[in-house]
Amino acid sequence: ETEKALSNYTRLLRQGLHPSGPSHTRPDIITYNSVLHACTKGKLWRQGLVVLRDMRRSGVRPDHVTSSIGMLLLHETPRDDIVAKLYQEALDTGEINPWVGKSKQLLDLHGMNEQVARTSVLMGIEDAIRRQRRRMSIIPGKGLHSLSGQPVLMPSVLALLQDELKLHVRHGKDNTGSVVVPLGQVRRRKDLKDLCSAKSPASKEM
């Protein structure tokens, strides 16, 4: 199925159906989603990145299916720098929106693996500082939907915040699956801001 979808996509391009061509010759959202789904199913993340790049260049607007597939593609990508680049592009195009509410103070990590969640937290801290927020909250989840019923992301998120970044955090009062991060401590420490930037793969070139 994967090889067939990619073969058909390549054949369409050879026949003149091209992302940069006139609108009537471009692949539509159904075509892109089908090929992207095949790439994630076959764990062909490099090919998936090419297709995703073609879709963005063509101007085809992503839908909720694209967003779900895009998250799966991020999960299959082994390189942190590529994950960060894709993540930022997905934020810019609206394919992914981890912030809850217009205030952008609550970061929801549900549906992410550890690699993507780490990128989301680091980039979220940088974004919150730029927006001059006093604090931000992170929801790693309580493990209700995990196979073991135990929190999957909470340990890794706490290790990142407390052990690596040396931040003082607390659990949210209303939601035991959330963590509150006061951002004043980040702004007061230049070394910590530099550390966040250095640890965030978004600061590195692909």
Automatic annotation (TrEMBL):
It comes from the Eukaryota. PPR repeats lie at residues 28-62. Keywords: Repeat. Residues 107-184 form the Smr domain. InterPro entries: PPR_rpt, Smr_dom, Smr_dom_sf, TPR-like_helical_dom_sf. It holds the Pfam family Smr. PROSITE patterns: PPR, SMR. This is Smr domain-containing protein.
